Amino acid sequence: TGAFTFDPGFTSTASCESKITYIDGDEGVLLYRGYPIEQLAEHGDFLETCYLLYYGELPTPSQRKEFDKNITYHTMVHEQMTRFFQGFRRDAHPMAVMVAVVGAMSAFYHDSTDINDARQREIASHRMIAKLPTIAAMAYKYHIGQPFVYPQNSLSYSANFLRMCFAVPCEEYVVNPILARAMDRIFILHADHEQNASTSTVRLAGSSGANPFACIAAGIACLWGPAHGGANEAALEMLKEIGDPAKVPEFIAKVKDKTSHIRLMGFGHRVYKNYDPRAKIMQKTAHEVLTELGIKDDPLLEVARVLEQAALSDPYFIERKLYPNVDFYSGIILRALGFPTSMFTVLFALARTVGWISQWKEMIEDPNQKIGRPRQLYTGAPRRDYVPVTQRG
Ligand code: CMC
């Protein structure tokens, strides 16, 4: 078999060196470029986090101004791209649209696909950070049959995104700053998470020299699955299905019965064997948003609370170190903001784009970078000779 180790699921294999994100799963610590996630979520904003992840330091005031200018310069998509959307069935899942449209960016922005040119790499990165909200909002508008809303650069990144999703031409739309702040915080919490499945996908795709738009499209495809970015959608569907706090014990019993193959969505993590620090901030944000919207006694929040308590005191979850992860409470907030579940993973993709592109940049700039090429343990048939079809019985 050769001299290599067999590590299904890469549970103990480091695929790269990185200076971007640090996680201590036992202690429940998450740092972006050394800064605790709690501090960034409380005091920073998403664009600042983008700068930090991408360039490695928090921006000075003049760097911040320049960065804002570069990002807002790219917020619109090429007008021809708006027609690309018309090719989809009108009820297409917005994630299907995201994979395709982001992939198609390499066909629209040829002047930033040369990965050997540092300036082109930077422009492609700015374009993706700037255009993903526009594309995500367009995917949503197309899905619900409303006209596209163009970006408004005088607004903050998240306020502009909410406006592109929820404004309609026949009414004035005023962005609620508390809700925009909550959206921004959700983006900060999802911005990077070291070598998760989608980030590893982006790095693997990029290791062959593929252009950055194609690499990010690959990341979006990987993120779609329910064990990864699709978990927020699945978590909310689960809370809806339970529906009533009184039904929590019955549901927990089903999860514990392995033959049911039901998992508690929004619970457990490959790296965190303690409370996911993002889940704590998410829980607090959920309360803030519901209070702002005057939603008292949200039944789903109550189901979530009872479910969390029941799981955290149950030996099954204690023994396996299963705690709420980032997705347990995010669905409650996104639903309150007005997003349908089909948009949840899209929002994750939007936020994670900066993490993917920062990881891609780090890899491309590494002089020791080589194509990712895992090996396998072959367990198939031994060598055998071909038999013509007429002689096969
Ligand atoms: N509910 C019930 N049991 C679980 C769960 C869960 N959510 N997660 C893990 N387990 C059990 C699993 O059945 C196994 O039990 P046993 O040892 O008896 O076979 C044990 O815990 C270890 O599970 P694993 O599948 O080996 O753990 P993993 O590190 O491969 O999986 C995970 C990590 C996140 C895929 C998993 O915990 C899961 O499926 N969670 C639900 C989906 C979810 O919330 N995903 C979002 C993750 S955070 C955001 C992101 O990364 O996208």
From TrEMBL:
<dbReference type="InterPro" id="IPR019810">
    <property type="entry name" value="Citrate_synthase_AS"/>
</dbReference>
<keyword id="KW-0808">Transferase</keyword>
<dbReference type="InterPro" id="IPR016142">
    <property type="entry name" value="Citrate_synth-like_lrg_a-sub"/>
</dbReference>
<feature type="active site">
    <location>
        <position position="269"/>
    </location>
</feature>
<dbReference type="GO" id="GO:0006099">
    <property type="term" value="P:tricarboxylic acid cycle"/>
</dbReference>
<dbReference type="InterPro" id="IPR010953">
    <property type="entry name" value="Citrate_synthase_typ-I"/>
</dbReference>
<feature type="active site">
    <location>
        <position position="327"/>
    </location>
</feature>
<comment type="similarity">
    <text>Belongs to the citrate synthase family.</text>
</comment>
<dbReference type="GO" id="GO:0036440">
    <property type="term" value="F:citrate synthase activity"/>
</dbReference>
<dbReference type="InterPro" id="IPR016143">
    <property type="entry name" value="Citrate_synth-like_sm_a-sub"/>
</dbReference>
<dbReference type="InterPro" id="IPR024176">
    <property type="entry name" value="Citrate_synthase_bac-typ"/>
</dbReference>
<comment type="pathway">
    <text>Carbohydrate metabolism; tricarboxylic acid cycle; isocitrate from oxaloacetate: step 1/2.</text>
</comment>
<keyword id="KW-0816">Tricarboxylic acid cycle</keyword>
<dbReference type="GO" id="GO:0005737">
    <property type="term" value="C:cytoplasm"/>
</dbReference>
<protein>
    <recommendedName>
        <fullName>Citrate synthase</fullName>
    </recommendedName>
</protein>
<dbReference type="InterPro" id="IPR002020">
    <property type="entry name" value="Citrate_synthase"/>
</dbReference>
<keyword id="KW-0012">Acyltransferase</keyword>
<dbReference type="Pfam" id="PF00285">
    <property type="entry name" value="Citrate_synt"/>
</dbReference>
<dbReference type="InterPro" id="IPR036969">
    <property type="entry name" value="Citrate_synthase_sf"/>
</dbReference>
